[in-house]
From TrEMBL:
InterPro entries attached to this UniProt entry: SWT21/TCAB1_mRNA_Telomere, WD40/YVTN_repeat-like_dom_sf, WD40_repeat_dom_sf, WD40_rpt
UniProt entry tagged with the keyword DNA damage: no
GO cellular component terms, semicolon-separated: Cajal body
Placement of WD repeats on the sequence: 275-317
Residue runs in coiled coils: none
Family the UniProt entry places it in: Belongs to the TCAB1 family.
SMART domains: WD40
Xref: PROSITE patterns: WD_REPEATS_2, WD_REPEATS_REGION
UniProt entry keywords in alphabetical sequence: WD repeat
Native source species: Didymodactylos carnosus
Protein name, per record: WD repeat-containing protein 79
GO BP term (any one): Cajal body organization
């Protein structure tokens, strides 16, 4: 549904973002209704999708297979893949699994270009990074380049532990970044994000954001409360995701599991506005490259909302997908910001053309036989990585009909045969 400057969602506005940025001598957003990219990527079409590789997770070990298939099992497996991320230089792929392990794969891009997509298989993990608890979030260092070993590092946060900085070559922990609560007990970050220059790391906690200087491991250099008692504008709940505007220095947005989105100015940490519109806790948030739009997604909420940052509280568009669980379902944009790609709880991948006014998907295709949770687009090549998997709970059982169970009337439940697919797939999109 396309929304044309209609303020239908509740907002708490402290001051005009544009006025605030002007007072801070920041570059102002251009006064235009919509910014389109003139540079195009190959058009995505169902007949031009080619599966290049499948990395399958089985029995807590990642193996490979040439084709994807539906697994039938009665066990509640522990190898669910939660997300995947391609590295900033596009040479590596990182996955996060339920076995508390990050796995790193090398993408053989030497023989690949925009006109030649050679299928590759047998991708084995070259490195495994194990955490002591379930991993909440992980990110590549934004200036990572494989030719510079010092920049090849991964930041990871897990339950009851500090943020760990892993060396992407050796797998060792270089250092840790710690945060403590009012009882002086160690607490874990729920999300990690970097300023565009890559020197400061912002981590989300309950009702607060802590800032770390990555060159000074240890405790944070600043803590910013998002729900101060004396403040008229508050963002409560756990800060679950953060993203920075690449265009307007110092502007960032934070999503909360309390269903709110806060827009902040980095210099002072002042909340500029609090946006409300989702039905569930915010799980993913992204600025557009021009800084004028903010895209947000939430758990148990089928809508990706596109907010107009120049007019806080006003929606430009909504993009519908299927998100029926609390799991994070990621979305991503191509490098030219002309295409939006999102997974779904049904395994379907939806692709929207952001150059068009219509917000119906340009194409849909079934990428997995289970929840497609991770989406990552290659920074230079027309490659797409998707991951699948989700936990199965007691709701995945069916009660036996007593009329059809004469021999085992004492059995109370019968576990269904559940299709599973815990894997990562790498797709190539051919130009028309």
């Amino acid at each position: 549904m396309l929304l044309n400057k209609t303020s239908i969602f509740k907002q708490t506005l402290l001051k005009s973002i544009v006025d605030y940025v002007r007072q801070s001598n920041e570059k102002l957003p251009p006064e235009c209704d919509h910014v389109l990219s003139e540079q195009l990527i190959p058009t995505l079409d169902e007949k031009h999708c080619e599966l290049m590789s499948v990395i399958e997770n089985r029995s807590n070990e990642i193996t490979t297979t040439e084709v994807a298939y539906e697994r039938e099992t009665t066990k509640l497996s522990e190898d669910t893949v939660y997300s995947t991320q391609l590295s900033p230089d596009g040479l590596c792929l990182l996955t996060n699994s339920d076995d508390k392990t990050l796995r790193l794969f090398e993408i053989p891009t030497n023989n690949l270009n925009e006109n030649n997509h050679q299928q590759f298989n047998d991708l084995d993990a070259v490195l495994k990074l194990r955490e002591p608890e379930l991993i909440y979030d992980f990110v590549w260092y934004p200036r990572m380049n494989s030719t510079d070993p010092d920049s090849c590092c991964i930041f990871s946060t897990c339950g009851d532990n500090p943020v760990h900085l892993f060396d992407a070559y050796t797998g060792i922990v270089r250092c840790s970044y710690k945060a403590y609560d009012h009882l002086d007990e160690l607490i874990a970050a729920h999300c990690i994000a970097f300023e565009p220059d890559g020197f400061k790391m912002f981590c989300g906690y309950n009702k607060s954001i802590r800032i770390f200087d990555i060159n000074r491991p240890g405790q944070c250099i600043e803590e910013r409360k998002t729900a101060e008692r004396t403040s008229s504008v508050k963002q409560t709940g756990i800060i679950s995701c953060i993203d920075f505007s690449q265009e307007f220095r110092g502007l960032y947005a934070a999503g909360s599991y309390n269903k709110s989105i806060g827009v902040y100015f980095e210099a002072k940490g002042d909340p500029l506005c609090i946006l409300h519109g989702h039905n569930g806790g915010i799980t993913h948030i992204r600025f557009s490259p021009d800084g004028n739009r903010l895209y947000t997604g939430a758990r148990k909420d089928n809508m990706i909302l596109c907010w107009d940052i120049r007019n806080p509280g006003e929606l430009l568009a909504t993009y519908e997908r299927v998100v029926s669980t609390n799991q994070r379902i990621y979305f991503d944009f191509d490098p030219t910001f002309s295409t939006l790609v999102s997974g779904s709880s049904t395994g379907q991948v939806s692709i929207w053309d952001l150059k068009q006014e219509f917000v119906l998907p340009k194409m849909n295709f079934i990428a997995h036989n289970d929840c497609t949770n991770g989406i990552s687009i290659h920074p230079t090549l027309p490659l797409l990585a998707t991951s699948s998997g989700q936990r199965k709970f007691a709701g995945d059982i069916t009660t036996i009909d007593e009329d059809n169970n004469d021999t085992n009337i004492d059995d109370e439940f019968n576990i269904k045969t559940i299709p599973r697919e815990n894997c990562v797939k790498i797709w190539a999109f051919h130009p028309l």
